[in-house]
Amino acid sequence: MMKIYNTMTRQKEEFKTIEPGKVRMYLCGPTVYNYIHVGNARSTVAFDTVRRYLEYKGYEVNYVSNFTDVDDRIINQAIEEGVSTKEIADKYIDAFTEDTGKLNVKPACVHPRVIDHIEEIIEFVEALIEKGFAYESQGDVYYRARKFKNYGQLSNKSLDELEVGASQRTGSEQDKKEDPLDFALWKAAKEGEVSWNSPWGAGRPGWHIECSVMVNKHLGTTIDIHAGGQDLEFPHHENEIAQSEAKTGETFANYWMHNAYLTVGESGEKMSKSLKNFVTAHELMEEVDPEIVRFALAKTHYRHPMPFNEVIIKEATSNLSKIKSSLNNTLFRLEQAEKSLEDDQDYLNELKQIKEQFEKGMDDDFNAANGITAVYSLVKWLNAYLEKNKVSQVVLEQSVALLTTLMAVFGLDLGKKEMLDEEIEALIEERNAARKNKDFKRSDDIRDELKEMGIILEDTSQGTRWSRA
C-alpha cells in the first residue's frame, strides 16, 4: 500500500487515484526570468523521481508543469536587458529545458505557458465575479479571501494570523481592496508593461489565478497530486485552492506535496535568489557531472531539508562510482558465466527481497533515502555474489535488470549506451549530406537523435563541432 504525506491533513494517507491506474499530477514550474538555482532544481528532480516511481508501479501519469511567463520579475528583467518579456521568457525556458535535460528530468506531458491562457484566465475571473467571490476596483480585480470558508487550511494559518500579516502591507494597492486579506486576480496595466484587453481594461493576470486555470484546462477540476516547493504553501497554493474551489465547487487536489528547502552554510538558511546565497544549476553543472548532481538531489527524502555543500557532492560521487563499478564487474563476469546453476532460485529469492525492500521504502511517502539504501544493499549483495568461482547468467542478468531499473527511478540511466566518436562523426557526415540535399527533416532528426544521446552540435563557418553534454 502506497502512502503520501498530505500537507492539507498533515498526515500520511493511503494513495487512491481518481481513475484506476491513472494519476493527474501538477507541479508548479519556474518563473522564467533567470537560470534556476540548485534549490529550484531540487524540487524539479524530487517530483520527477515521484513521477518515475509512480510509473514504475504501473500508473499512467499525466504530468503537467507550467512556465510562469507573465510576472513582475520578468517585466523588470526585460526592462533591464532592453528586450521584450517574451524574449526573456523564451531565453530562460530554453535554459530550463537544457539544465533539466542534463539532469535527466523527463519533460512534462504538457508545459503550459500563461500567455497561451489569457482568454481562459479572463473567463475564470468573470465566473468568480458572478459568484460574488471577486470584485473590480479601479481596473484591478481582487478575490474576497474571507468569503472562502476554508481559507488558511493548507498553510495551517488562522484568519487572525493572516490578517495581521496582511495589515502590515502598505501601498496604493491596499487602498483598492475591501479587505487587506484580498489578493489580486487581475492587475491593471502600468505604462510600458505587457498587457491584454479585458472587461476591466488593459491588464494582466495575477500569479495565483494562472496555475488554477492551467490545472483546470489540462488536468480537470479535481486532480490527484498538486506539488511544489515548501515556500508555495502560502500564499500561492492557498490562493489556488480558494479560487478553484469557489469556481467549481469541487475539491481542487486530493493530495498536496511540498518539498523542503535546500540549505546552505552552517546556519542552514534556505537557498534563494532573494537571499543571494544561491548557485545556479547551470553554473554547478559546468564543474560537476550532471549525473552526480542528479544523484545527490534525488537520493534525499523530498520532505527533509537538504544541505548543499562539497561533502554532499563528494559522497554522491563516491557512491555512484561504487554502483557503476559493481555494474561493470557484473557485465564483465556475465560474458563467462554459466547459463544456470542449481542454487539460482535461492539467489533470485534474495533479489526479490531486495526489490521488496526498495518498494517498501518508496511506498512510504516516496522515501528516497530508504529506497537508495535498498540499492546499496543490492550492490553489496552483488559484489559478494561475484566473488564466487562460478556465477550464473540467470542471476547476473536479473541483477543487472534490477539495478538498472531501480536506478532509473532516481533518474540515473546506467544502461544508457554511450556513443563512440566514430559513430558520432558518421552521423554528422550523414547530416551534412542531408543538409546539402535540402533534406532538412533528416538533418533535424539526426540532431535530435544525437541530442538524446547527450551529444550537442554547433554549426560554425569552419564546420560542425560536437561535444558531450
From TrEMBL:
GO terms for cellular component: cytosol. Keywords: Aminoacyl-tRNA synthetase, ATP-binding, Coiled coil, Cytoplasm, Ligase, Metal-binding, Nucleotide-binding, Protein biosynthesis, Zinc. Its EC number is 6.1.1.16. ATP binds at K273. GO terms for molecular function: ATP binding; cysteine-tRNA ligase activity; zinc ion binding. Its cofactor is Zn(2+). Its main location: cytoplasm. HAMAP family: Cys_tRNA_synth. Monomer. This is Cysteine--tRNA ligase. It comes from Vagococcus fluvialis. The lineage of its organism: Bacteria, Bacillati, Bacillota, Bacilli, Lactobacillales.
